[in-house]
Design goal:
This protein is about 75% helix and about 0% strand. It is mostly helical and about 525 residues long.
């Protein structure tokens, strides 16, 4: 007998002739905790045998588990694990043999794991094996609840094997067995695959069969697919005409899928103007189609993402705002491009992005993600040295629940603002206050823009040097010299604690080199 014990034999032991578990007297009652522990132990033992390279022993354990009455309620999990193990080892024939046995013994369990084998064969790029297995399945006594799924794989396998001449007959069979709605579900992906290899005749025959059913879902699928055919042919003017005329006749889910398909094909063909027109039509003319409008925003912004032009990203966000797209719908794409925009050298562009963030913030409902956009506004304001706006964000309550951080941030931003406004002593006082906060650090702080881990002494040295620079620029040489001496002292402590081959060590050495040398003392 083969080393692989057939599931059918295990299941006979489990269900016997009179139902699950044989006679009641043969079943020993097990406490729930003990049962769960035993069940977990079964999987652990099988995993250990597999990791040791003994796949057969792992298989034996799982098949024995299927035959054990105490695991009757877990047979689906055990059988799934058995198939996963066999397919992981690419023992496809063993997996198929066990699946057919389970199909005979417990159709319900088999139905729950139906997709595993055809999915594996498709991933392995084995079109002949994929086709043979799926053909066997559509002729097998499958439970009715998975027959449509079986035909989905079978049609797909025929497409993979380039059996395009069978599409018309398959479409007729599917329409007859599953109605127009079921056939539309089955052929959704195959139609696109056939279009990708320019087989318009096969697609035409499929759509004709679906149309003949008179089913509303099938009619919607046909309408959408006919537009996709035009896109596949590159007839972009016709695409626009058809979409404007027919998109509103589709349910929201249908028009959303149609728009995504058309925009994807237009993007691949570098037809950004077509994408713009399709999306702008949706936003202007389809106010109730929320899903389609969301797709329109996404596809419209994807044009700028592909081109990597941050200026176009901002321009498109502004255009969408002008077209009446709500702030919540613009929030996600704004979030996605914000830091790319702030990394550019275009100050007016950065200002425009910040204005969009302010608008989103002003439109948010009470339970909206206010802190998320406050963080953008705070970061962006600091990046363009707009400390007045950054301070306003803090004073409006951003992260006020963290009192220590909030106080530190107000001090630091306030110091920059004071310096910007020429209030030297105020700036120095606030930087000193910030240094008091830094002196409490017990861990380094990583700068996300550089990846450097700033130790307490590094940060204290940096701020002491900054105070020295401020005093120097204010013409207060003696005070500046004292601050520079303080900076050297902190940096010396930092260097002593850092690894000499670290980026942080090199950074501190560079900083020390920029500190003005002490003024030479006059000879006595």
């Amino acid at each position: 007998m083969s080393r692989i014990i057939l599931v059918l034999m295990a299941m006979v032991l489990l269900v016997g002739c009179g139902g699950k578990g044989g006679t009641e007297s043969a079943v020993v009652e097990t406490p729930a905790v003990e049962h769960e522990s035993s069940f977990n132990a079964l999987f652990s033992q099988a995993r250990e045998r597999y990791n040791e390279g003994d796949t057969d022993a792992a298989v034996d354990l799982l098949v024995a588990g299927l035959a054990d009455p105490q695991y009757a309620d877990e047979q689906s999990s055990i059988f799934r694990s058995l198939l996963e193990l066999l397919l992981l080892e690419n023992r496809v024939i063993d997996a198929q043999t066990n699946y057919l046995a389970m199909l005979n013994a417990s159709p319900e369990t088999a139905s729950q794991t139906f997709a595993m084998i055809p999915s594996h064969l498709k991933r392995q790029e084995d079109p002949a094996g994929y086709l043979a297995w799926t053909e066997q399945m559509v002729t097998a006594p499958l439970p009715s609840n998975i027959m449509e799924n079986a035909y989905s794989y079978y049609v797909d396998a025929n497409v993979q094997s380039k059996m395009d001449d069978k599409m018309d007959a398959l479409a007729l069979t599917c329409c007859t067995r599953f109605g127009g709605a079921g056939a539309a579900r089955i052929f959704a992906r195959p139609v696109n695959a056939l279009l990708d290899r320019d087989n318009y005749d096969a697609v035409g025959s499929i759509l004709a069969r679906l149309s003949a059913t008179g089913d509303e879902s099938a009619a919607h699928f046909v309408t959408s697919s006919e537009m996709t055919v035009l896109a596949a042919r590159g007839e972009w003017d016709a695409v626009l005409t058809a979409f404007v005329a027919k998109a509103a006749t589709l349910p929201d889910t249908g028009s959303k899928l149609a728009l995504r398909s058309l925009c994807d094909r237009a993007m691949a063909a570098n037809q950004s103007a077509v994408i713009d027109q399709l999306c702008e039509h949706v936003i202007r003319a389809m106010p109730a189609a929320t899903g389609t409008r969301s797709q329109a925003v996404s596809s419209y912004m994807a044009v700028a993402v592909k081109s990597k032009h941050v200026a176009d990203s901002v321009a498109r966000l502004q255009k969408l705002k002008t077209l009446g797209v709500d702030s919540q719908s613009l929030g996600r794409p704004l979030n996605a491009v914000f830091y790319d925009v702030m990394g550019s050298s275009d100050l007016p562009l950065k200002q425009s992005a910040l204005e969009l963030v302010e608008w989103v913030l002003s439109e948010l409902p009470a339970d909206g993600p206010k802190a998320q956009y406050q963080a953008l506004l705070m970061d962006g304001s600091v990046l363009i040295n707009d400390y007045r706006r950054a301070l306003t964000v803090l004073e409006s309550g951003f992260r006020a629940d963290d009192a220590m951080w909030h106080s530190m941030a107000i001090n630091k931003v306030g110091a920059h603002l004071a310096l910007q406004e020429g209030r030297v002593d105020d700036a120095i006082a606030m930087f000193r206050s910030f240094m008091e906060h830094v002196s409490t650090w017990t861990e380094s702080t990583v700068d996300p823009s550089t990846g450097l881990a700033h130790t307490r002494e590094m940060s204290l040295g940096f701020n002491a040097k900054r105070i020295g620079d401020i005093l120097r620029d204010a013409g207060r040489a003696e005070e500046a010299a004292a601050a520079y001496a303080e900076a050297r002292s902190y940096y010396a402590e930092a260097l002593a604690a850092l690894a000499t081959d670290s980026s942080e060590y090199e950074y501190v050495k560079t900083e020390v080199a920029t500190i003005p040398a002490p003024a030479s003392q006059p000879a006595p």
